[in-house]
Amino acid sequence: MLSSPVECMGILLEGARQCPGVMLLILSTSWISKERSRGDPNLFSLFVHKAVTFDTAGRTFLDVFDPPRKVTYFVNFFTDGCTDGQRKDGEPIERDLDCPTSDSLNLVQIIDDKVLTRILMAEAGMQYPETLAFTYNVQHRYPKSEFDDIVIIKLEKINGVQEQVQCQVRKYLNRVKTRVQQVVVKPSGIMYHGSMGVTFHFTGDEEHVVSAILGLLESMPENNGVLVEEFYAPYSGDQTESTLDITDLSFRLRSNVCRGLNDTPITTTLVCGVGNKNEPINGDNTQPQSFETTLHQMGLSAHETRLREEVISTSENVLRRIIEFEKGLTIQEKGGVGAQTDIIGIDFVIGQKNGVISPIGIEVNSHDCTINCQLFEFINPRLSGSSLRPLVETMVSRSQEFVLQGRTIVVLGSGGTSKRFIWPIAKSYGVQVVLIDEEGCDVNAKEMCSMFIPYDFSNHVDDIDHADAISEILQSHAVKADGCCTFWEDCVPLTARLCSVLGLMGTGVEGAINAKQKSRTQKILMKRTGDIPHFPRTYLYAGKTVQIKTRVDIPKHMPKFRMPCMLKLEYGSSAVGCQTCQEYRGMRK
User: BL00235/CARNS1 N-terminal domain location, by residue (predicted)?
Assistant: First the structure.
């Protein structure tokens, strides 16, 4: 995290809970360096020399790394847009990186474009104000809008456009003045947030609307724009239901949406800020409070369930639409091989549209949208981490995928058809899979792996010999394994032995055998009876067990048991071969 602590403290603390010591806060660009990537000479790898680290309890340490640690996921807040023009020394650092990143300079330029996200809102089924937009030499492409209430006027210059702007504004105001009394004029682009440049105007005041638009355009750099949109006044129905005098009040709702695992959008937090209804409301001029409290104060509690469900579903639809949109961008347009939008914040107002009290989306914010959520959690410590947990899970998952790229992994056993989903995923991660199994194993697995080595290890009594033999075969094929694993239960002890022979990290041999053999598992659990203070008394979770090797063992052991009891295989899963034993006609069977 290249940032001051302000923007990302919530992410750092939740990151420390999920993976202590590896979520690194970089306070200076001098703490990191770039080197040519070993995987691609056209890209660069980032390395950390110094960082603030966090443990599970949130304690911080200033650590120096020698050798430096390789970055596996990068978040950059030292940009012109994120710091309101105060610094941008992080911008050259994020260019041409080989690792996953949260957004990029290019993506932020796109996702912070209120005109683009207004179209995506419409496609996602979200309610939004009727919009007139003026864009100034925008470089990225807009989806073809099929919505009559979103009109985009593309300007190639900002001088001499007064007549064109006035004509379009007059048409717009004539359309909306039968529905609303006021309109909002606001700028669009990465430098415009916190209600910067936002003004309210009455629909009959064409002159001031045009003047506000031209004033914004006058000082606006290219690749930005100006929106005119309907102003939705706050609900002013039965005020006897409210706990405040809401005559002059309104509120803004922020929904926080994370890209979870498998690109699943997850709405985690709904936070509100109450302010003057005739002034812009944002996170800088309000204190965060819960959605439930705000609706209660505004006399809208009766609508809470419906409003909440609509906000959550449409918010997730918007992120889903953004994910789909980004798939159509080139690497250059996205700003890097690992750039994608992993989190957004969506702002809503609650107003009456077509006679129905509805959440109306007004803008989308990119990766620097978490401050209000973390403030809300600091005020409510019991919620700590909840708004950012899926984001951190995605950061960790993408980091692990990056680390796996180009690695050679030996896999013992292809398993059955239920394991087929593994092989295309491994291939998409860039993993070189060396599959070892019998010749007649799953054809799909053989075809999707980088190398297939036939070997019959079906008799697991000889696992020690199998491990030695497989090690020699790998050596003869010049396979240098970075790891060894299995997805098939029968092969777990053999995999542990092979890891031991190859000197790789993995499950210990004894632990694998104890877990695989049911009687040994029970005996290990029965040994812990509280001899170590505070250690779980695992005997409480174990059952009495004996091993039946021959038929004559049955009458010898049965008096030790009360009926009913279970007869099961020493090895195996899915309850294969399990039988319930009980008394029958006075005899035990």
Answer: 426-504
Contact 11, 388 (CB under 8 A): yes
Domain boundary among 331, 362, 395: 395
Provide φ and ψ at 168, rounded to 5°: -70, -40
- Report yes or no: 206 and 170 within 8 Å, Cβ to Cβ: yes
Specify the DSSP element, H or E, that contains 471.
Answer: helix 463-476
Other Cβ atoms closer than 10 A to 149: 16
Q: Across 417-469, where does the E strand assignment appear?
A: 432-437, 451-454
DSSP secondary structure letters along 129-154: --EEEEEES--SPPP----TTEEEEE
Convert 78-120 into a string of H (helix), E (strand) and C (coil).
Answer: CCCCCCCCCCCCCCCCCCCECCCEECCHHHHHHHCCHHHHHHH
Residues 383 and 466 in one domain: no
CA distance 120 to 265: 15
Residue 187 confidence (pLDDT) above 90: yes
β-pairing verdict for 408-412 and 432-437: parallel
SS3 of residue 355 by DSSP: coil
- C-alpha distances in angstroms, 314 versus 13, 317, 340, 401, 431? 29, 5, 20, 30, 36
| Mean pLDDT for the stretch of residues 109-135 | 95
Domain that holds residue 172: 130-231
Strand partners, 272: 253, 289
Distance CA 125, CA 114 (A): 16
Distance in angstroms (rounded) separating the CA atoms of residues 365 and 352: 24
Q: How many helices (H) and strands (E) does the chain have?
A: 17, 23
Q: Provide the token pair at 345.
A: 């914040």
Examine residue 122 and state whether it is found in any structural domain, yes or no.
no
Spatial contact of 496 and 511, defined as CB atoms under 8 Å apart: yes
Domain boundary among 458, 487, 516: 516
Strand partners, 587: 584
| CATH value at residue 254 | 3.30.470.20
- When computed from its CA atoms, the radius of gyration of the chain, rounded to whole angstroms, is 31
CA dihedral (322, 328, 334, 338) in degrees, to 10, reads: 90
Percentage above 90 pLDDT, the chain: 70
Number of domains in the chain: 5
Report whether 567 contacts 579 (CB < 8 A).
Answer: yes
Q: What DSSP string runs through 363-428?
A: EEE-TT--HHHHHHHHHSGGGTTTTTHHHHHHHHHHHHHHHHTT-EEEEE----GGGTTHHHHHHH
Rounded CA-CA distance 240/355 in Å is 20
For the beta sheet containing 343-353, the strands, ordered from the edge strand earlier in sequence to the opposite edge, are 289-290, 265-276, 249-259, 343-353, 356-365
Nearest to 385 by CA among 2, 139, 116, 18: 18
Tell me the per-residue pLDDT of 307-342, one tens digit each, with 9 for 90 and over.
Answer: 999 999 999 999 999 999 999 999 999 999 999 999
The per-residue pLDDT for 505 is: 94
